[in-house]
């Protein structure tokens, strides 16, 4: 029976929400293998001088734990 682990990460981008999610997956993939899914728990933006300056996401990343 496979075991699935979930970690929570925060990522951001100056381009948009899609890019922030991709940044989360890219960074997590550097140390975690077998990513199955990403659940976006929350969205936020940072504002500077009355304009959106960056986009942020809080994600739950699910991955299968490999049995050796």
Give the topology, please:
Blueprint: E1 3-13, H1 17-29, E2 35-48, E3 51-65
Structure characterization notes:
It is a single chain. The chain has a single domain, classed as Dodecin subunit-like, CATH 3.30.1660.10. It has a three-stranded antiparallel β-sheet with strand order 1-3-2, covered by helices on one side. Helices cover 19% and strands 59% of the residues. The mean pLDDT is 95. The chain is an alpha+beta fold and 68 residues long. A hairpin with a 2-residue loop joins strand 2 and strand 3.
Quickly give the structural class. alpha+beta
**Oligomeric category:** single chain
Percent in strands = over 45%
Low-pLDDT runs: none
Q: What is the CA–CA distance across the termini?
A: 13 Å
CATH level 1 name? Alpha Beta
Element string (H = helix, E = strand): EHEE
The rough form would be described as: elongated
Helix segment tally: 1
Overall mean pLDDT stands at 95
Question: What is the helical fraction, as a range of percent?
Answer: 10-25%
Give me the Rg, rounded: 14 Å
CATH superfamily: Flavin-binding protein dodecin
CATH architect. name: 2-Layer Sandwich
> What is the name of the CATH topology?
Dodecin subunit-like
- Spatially, the strands of the biggest sheet line up as 1-3-2
How many domain units?
1
Summarize the structure.
With 68 residues, the protein is an alpha+beta fold.
Summary tags:
68 residues; alpha+beta; Dodecin subunit-like; 1 helix; 19% helix
